[in-house]
Amino acid sequence: MGAAAALPLLPLSSIVRAAEPDLSTLRPMTVGVKPIGRAERAERLSRAQSLMRANGIGAVLIEPGSSLVYFTGIRWGRSERALLAVLPVEGEPCIVSPFFEEPRMRETLGIPADVRVWQEDEDPLAVVAGFLRDRKLAGRPIAIEESVRFFIPDALARAMPGASIVSGNSIVRRCRMIKTAPELALMQRATDITIAAYRWVHPRVEKGMTGRDIGALMDAATVKLGGAPEFSMALIGEAAAYPHGTQAVHRVDRGEIVLMDCGCTVEDYQSDVSRTFVFGAATKEQRTVWDQVHQGQQTAIAAARIGVPAGSVDDAVRKLYQGFGYGPGYKLPGLSHRTGHGIGLDGHEPVNLVRGEATLLAPGMCFSNEPGIYIPGKFGVRLEDCFHMTEAGPKWFSQPPGSIDQPV
To answer: Would the pLDDT of 387 be above 50?
Structure first.
């Protein structure tokens, strides 16, 4: 017999429910949601230009990705044909587009801009250089957004010999790291949808289901609730001992841990929530580890205060866990990854709640709080809820569950 024959068969009823679940009790939660508009993007440009002036920078160069969406609204994939945005220290930005793509690009362009095109036999960075010369910015440093591919600033250096090309982190990171009220509202709605989907999925998990089956239920619920699924991971049993699982197929059984890590987007802004529960009755060890992770979450949120280094939040959790006998540091059994990461348009954004991170916490910063505990060969527990910093301290997007018996 083949290797597949060794796996227990999934009951037909479970297959049907996973593939075609009954979603009739769910209703969209995105009615009335307000996408980011021109006024908000105008404020973003103004903040960026203020930072450019403070840092002596003439312009910032951006290519497709979340930063392009953030400043311009343009949703575009990356290819060898460069589509670029140039944010000058004064005046309207410039969009440099392939000629034949201009009509499609304008469908998502959300700001007033000087649009300049290039033909297939032309160099798009020569067009960028021309714009900078026209704006009398060729002699000032040009900042590059951190995810821009190397060939782009390399070509810019050839088009503008002697140009000073510098990092754009002091501009782009500082803008994107501090979320505004409209951004927070979209992140809150995305989180609300993820929590609602969890509450729908949890009682529908059945013996014999795989992680993929559970993820399919989560995706279906998320779509019906109005979110766009970003990821839906479910780790079962020993697979949960590894933060992102393994290649092996595990099936739900009595007494097994189920660790779910799921998120969606609403108008481009993301949620990220993890829940861990036991199918059936939890053992004493499972309860103990779950409670320790819950205490880790509470330790992290208590340590997150305005003006403290982001890394100190991670330090507080590791000190607690070492007292439980885990670690030390990132060693296993224990917490092998950072306590949290930034979140917004991207699921993972700077900065992180990780040892040594000196950036000071400030109002508007958003983070995950996910101090899991992983015991190789056995199981793992991760509880993840995101929060944002306010003048009064941290505020949850979702409330952590209170016990392993009420995990969602």
So the answer is: yes
Per-residue pLDDT at 279 exceeds 60: yes
pLDDT of 43 over the 90 cut: yes
Peptide bond between residue 328 and the one before it cis (omega within 30 degrees of 0): yes
Q: Which residues lie across from 88 on neighbouring strands? A: 59
- 234, β-bridge pairs: 260
Model confidence pLDDT, tens digit, residues 150-169? 999 999 999 999 999 999 99
- What are the DSSP calls for 145-193, one per residue? -TTS-THHHHHHHHHSTT--EEE-HHHHHHHHHS--HHHHHHHHHHHHH
Distance CA 371, CA 336 (A): 9
7-16 residue pLDDT tens: 344 444 454 4
Spell out the domains of the chain, with CATH numbers in brackets. Answer: 38-177 (3.40.350.10), 179-396 (3.90.230.10)
Give φ, ψ of 51 to 5 degrees.
-70, -35
Measured CA to CA, the distance from residue 6 to residue 194 in angstroms comes to 35
Q: How many CB atoms lie within 10 A of CB 248?
A: 9
Is 52:61 a contact under the CB 8 Å cutoff? no
pLDDT for 19: 61
pTM passes above 0.85: yes
Mean pLDDT confidence for 214-241: 98
Residue 162 — left, alpha, or beta (φ > 0 → left; ψ -120 to 50 → alpha)?
Answer: left
Q: DSSP per residue over 64-127, as a string?
A: SSHHHHHHH-------SS--EEEEESSS--EEEEEGGGHHHHHTT--S--EEEEE-TTS-HHHH
Q: Where are the alpha helices (DSSP H) in 202-332?
A: 211-225, 284-303, 311-324
Residue 292: HSE in the Cβ half-sphere, 13 Å Cα cutoff: 25
